[in-house]
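Q: What residues go here?
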């Protein structure tokens, strides 16, 4: 998966799953043996079943977030995305590193996020 249109479709599907919290939507994003790293130095979620279960343990409520993104790099090997996630009370900068299987599902996903400073009152 190296085309920006393919990556856009996958991210659209990811955002749809993020908002639906539907196990089928989530699971269809990932290969059976995918690895999902949510934080540096923490054990990743391994395998589609664990990814779905852990995602649902940490789910956001539908409509709670907005997500904007732009590609940093899209190659045959890896895709890097810079994003911004907005919640009602906070905003985060995101960096996603995604490795896709030939069928377009994700086989390895790593995310880094940093909360924006809150305005002083």
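A:
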């Amino acid at each position: 998966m190296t085309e920006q249109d393919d990556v856009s479709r996958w991210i659209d599907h990811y955002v749809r799953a993020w908002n639906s919290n539907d196990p089928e939507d989530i699971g269809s994003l990932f290969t059976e043996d995918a690895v999902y790293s949510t934080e540096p130095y923490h054990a990743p979620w391994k395998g589609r079943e664990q990814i779905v279960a852990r995602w649902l343990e940490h789910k956001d409520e539908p409509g709670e977030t907005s997500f904007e993104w732009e590609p940093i790099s899209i190659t045959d090997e890896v895709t890097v995305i810079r994003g911004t996630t907005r919640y009602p009370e906070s905003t985060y900068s995101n960096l996603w590193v995604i490795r896709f299987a030939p069928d377009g599902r994700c086989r390895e996903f790593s995310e880094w996020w940093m909360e924006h400073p809150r305005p002083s009152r």
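A: Context that may help when evaluating the design: Strands lie at 30-37, 45-46, 66-74, 79-86, 91-100, 106-115. The chain has three helices and six strands.
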